[in-house]
Specification:
Layout: H1 2-29, H2 57-92, H3 96-110, H4 114-124, H5 129-156, H6 159-166, H7 171-182, H8 184-207, H9 219-226, H10 235-270
Helix pairs in contact: 1-2, 1-10, 2-3, 2-5, 2-8, 2-10, 3-5, 4-5, 5-7, 5-8, 8-9, 8-10, 9-10
Length: about 270
C-alpha cells in the first residue's frame, strides 16, 4: 500500500507540474509576439500552428495559463477568508439570532447556481480578472461556510470544548487552538475538491467571455475562439484543453494521495 500511495502522489505531482510550470514560468520564456501568419495553419516556424487570428499557438499557451491559475487560487483563498470566520462564529456562538444573521443570507446565495450568479453579475458590470476572482469567491462562500460550520459544530459538541470553557479559555484559543485544529483534515479535503471546482468555474466563465477580453491569451478563451478550426488546426484547441484537464485532475490526485498518506500515518501513530 505504501508503494501505491507513493505512486499516486508522484502521478499527481507529475500531472499537475506541467500545466502549473507553464502557467507560472511560461510568460518568462514566451519571447516577443512576432509577425502574424495565416489563421489556422501548421508549420511555417509555428510548431503548434497558428490560432484564429494567425498568432503563434505555443506563445499563446505560454501566456494563457497564468490568468486561469492565479484567478482560481485567489478565488479559493478569498472564499475561505470569509467562510472560515463565518462558519466558526456560527458554530461557537450561543446566540441563535447571530447564527441566523450570518447563515441565512448565505443560504439564499446557495440556492443560486454559481455560474448563473456570475453571469447575472456580469450583466450589471463588466468584471476584469480581479472582479472575476471576487465573483467566483462569492459563489463559493455559502457552501464553504456551511461545511466549516458543520465540521466546527461536530468539534464543539465534544466534552473537551466544554472543559476549555469551564477553565476560562478565550474564544480565540478554543476556536483556533482546538476546533480549528480538529477540522484541518476536513478543510484540506474540501480545499482540493473546491480548487478543482473553482478552476472549472473560472475556465467556464472565461470560455463565456466573462472577466477576459475576447482575444486574450487565456487557455479557456483559446478553446472557445479556436474551436471553429478544430478539424483544420486541432492543436489550438487540444493543447489548452488538455492543460486545463491536467491541472484539475492533477490537483485532485495530489490532494487525495496526500490525505490518504496522512490518514494512514495518523492511524499507525494512534496504535499503542
Amino acid at each position: 500500500m505504501s508503494r501505491l500511495r507513493t505512486g499516486r502522489f508522484a502521478l499527481g505531482v507529475t500531472v499537475v507540474a506541467v500545466p502549473l510550470l507553464l502557467a507560472l514560468l511560461g510568460p518568462v520564456f514566451a519571447g516577443g509576439p512576432g509577425p502574424r501568419a495565416t489563421s489556422f495553419t501548421l508549420g511555417g516556424g509555428h510548431w503548434l500552428g497558428t490560432d484564429f487570428v494567425g498568432r503563434d499557438v505555443w506563445r499563446q499557451v505560454l501566456h494563457g495559463g497564468r490568468p486561469v491559475v492565479l484567478t482560481a487560487l485567489a478565488a479559493t483563498a478569498l472564499a475561505y477568508l470569509v467562510a472560515l470566520p463565518v462558519g466558526l462564529v456560527s458554530a461557537l456562538t450561543r446566540h441563535r439570532r447571530l447564527e441566523d444573521l450570518l447563515m441565512r443570507p448565505l443560504d439564499v446565495l446557495l440556492a443560486v447556481p454559481s455560474l448563473l450568479l456570475i453571469l447575472l453579475a456580469a450583466t450589471v458590470f463588466e468584471p476584469d480578472a480581479v472582479g472575476l476572482a471576487l465573483l467566483v469567491a462569492l459563489a463559493q462562500v455559502p457552501d464553504a461556510a456551511r461545511l466549516v460550520r458543520a465540521a466546527a459544530a461536530e468539534a464543539v459538541a465534544r466534552p473537551a470544548v466544554e472543559a476549555l470553557r469551564m477553565q476560562g479559555e478565550t474564544w480565540w484559543r478554543i476556536a483556533v487552538g482546538y476546533v480549528g485544529r480538529s477540522m484541518l483534515r476536513t478543510l484540506a479535503a474540501d480545499a482540493g475538491t473546491r480548487l478543482t471546482g473553482v478552476l472549472y468555474l473560472v475556465a467556464t466563465a472565461a470560455f463565456l467571455g466573462v472577466g477576459v477580453a475576447p482575444d486574450a491569451a487565456d487557455w479557456a478563451v483559446m478553446v472557445d475562439r479556436n474551436r471553429t478550426g478544430l478539424f483544420v488546426q486541432p492543436w489550438a484547441v487540444v493543447v489548452p484543453a488538455v492543460l486545463i484537464v491536467a491541472l484539475t485532475t492533477g490537483t485532485n490526485l495530489l490532494f487525495d494521495a496526500a490525505l490518504d498518506k496522512g490518514g494512514r500515518r495518523t492511524g499507525k501513530e494512534a496504535r499503542p
